[in-house]
Design a protein that fits this description.
binds magnesium ion, Beta Polymerase, domain 2, 15 helices, alpha+beta, single chain, two-stranded antiparallel ribbon, Poly(a)-polymerase, middle domain, 9 strands, binds uridine 5'-triphosphate
Length: 385
Amino acid sequence: MYILLNEYQLTEENIKLRFLACSLVRDFARAYFPDSTVKPFGSSVNTFGKLGSDVDMFLDFHDTGKHATKMKKGPFEMEYQMKRLPSERLATQRILSVIGDCLDNFGPGCVNVQKILNARCPLVKFAHQPTGFQCDLSVSNSIAIRSSELLYIYGCLDSRVRALVFTIRCWARVHGLTNSAPGTWITNFSLTMMVMFFLQRRSPPIIPTLDQLKELADEKDKHIIGGYDCSFVSDLRKIKPTKNTETLEVLLGEFFEYFGNFDFRKNSINLRKGKEVNKPESSPLYIWNPFEQDLNISKNVNQPQLEKFVAMARESAWILQKEDKTQQIINKEPWGLASLLIPLGKSNSSKMKNRMKGIGSETIRSLLDSLKLNNANSQQKAVGK
Ligand code: UTP
Ligand code: MG
């Protein structure tokens, strides 16, 4: 699992390129809004980014007041007449619309520009050819940024957190439970929240609940955004390390066991409380937005997709428990985690070649090879890292 993490996590260069893509958009935005800036959020900066993840970026007008303030302090009181728009949403749509057009017409290397302005969170999607990034540009959404900060903190608390998330994300991708196109499947963000919830439910818990992080917050950590309390501690030293010593191998099996048997019909996932709560409405999968508590972050997931997830989790738990590893090793077949990274339903040993063909990604194929070659010794070294 640590090998997977090392192979897939963003490299320093890749993170720098993501910031570079943001600065390109910033230069365009500044043609219209001189004090604006563009910053990355989401998995590019929350430590859960995987090579190939999109670049979520937001336009920030935080500093736009600067000039106006300076002018007022001068010898003349100048009054600016501001353009008035009936709503903030309309302003957001218009801003994104002009910047989208600008990127489309003049953005070097920017292709497939799509304006998705009627979404709950309006955005402009485009591909940046020189870096190969798929980019999503939105206007500053303070709550989404707080979610990124929260995940960043969780990712720093214990080395098992990111390794487990990366493994579950790879597993979900291999089995078609997630997809880079929008649809009725579980998003990586929802999946990451499910892993966090599972880690809160361990005994003893591996990470604290959001309410516990809020209790540790001091004055400077206080954030009330749109009436929602988004406060949580930022000083990691205030958070007591967990006493939980479960291995990643155990946690992986337990994750599948837990969600394979979770009562999704009745219960929802609430990271603030760190416990299962009755579902407030009938969506198949209900994961409370950690801050906007009236929103379900997995509202898009339909019943068949949820059932597929549950079936795959059960089958994976079963494979990890029941597999006759000795036989698999003698037959030189993948076992344990490696066998979970191959599409299931083709596990007959005589179909080994087909199984290898079925692996979508070249990287997973070479990973499996390296897992096969590496003996227990080298795996231990990786865990030591
Ligand atoms: P993404 O869907 O791009 O997720 O949303 P991600 O975490 O970056 O994961 P990948 O790697 O692209 O698949 C970007 C960010 O938007 C916020 C979260 O902060 C998320 O990290 N977000 C997304 C929400 O706050 N609520 C949502 O329902 C979805
Ligand atoms: Mg993203």
